[in-house]
Amino acid sequence: QSHLVESGGGSVEPGGSLRLSCTMPGFIYDRNCIGWIRQAPGKERDGVASIYTGDYTTYYADSVKGRFIISLDNALNTVYLTMNNLKPEDTATYYCASMSFHKCARMTTMRGEPADAYAVDYWGIGALVTISS
User: Fold this and answer.
1) What is the model's pLDDT at position 1?
2) What does the alpha-carbon distance between residue 102 and residue 49 come to, in Å, rounded to a whole number?
């Protein structure tokens, strides 16, 4: 698949909201998975959320469940991560990633893993999200 382009990073106060976008120049394939993975400074990467393009099933890490929403707009070739009630521990660089469908559920359970462990097909360049008062 083509290069993933991320946007929407920035700085917000605790309790605030932010929406990240991940756009592809081509179309989004069925039976694929698009996910968001984050990395805090000095740490490895944690899976955050994913969506299976076959039936739009979504998966979330326990730390963001109920606060973050991943969604897909096929017409715009874009996956969004809407982040609500942001906390300081959400501060990280957020990467979108395209991967095989069978990795969609497991990805959100991964913690402190290097980038290679996620075995993605394509990474975005990352968007920095900073939560502070």
Assistant:
1) 44
2) 14
For the chain, the straight-line distance linking the first and the last C-alpha, in angstroms and rounded, comes to 39
The angle at the Cα of 19, spanning 5 to 33, to the nearest 5 degrees, equals 55
The label of the residue with tokens 């698949």 reads 1
pLDDT in tens, 35-78: 999 999 999 999 999 999 989 999 999 999 999 999 999 888 89
DSSP 8-69: --EEE-TT--EEEEEE-SSPPPTTEEEEEEEE-TTS-EEEEEEEETTT--EEE-TTTTTTEE
Residue type, 132: S
Centroid of chain to Cα 53: 14
31 — pLDDT class (breaks 50, 70, 90): confident
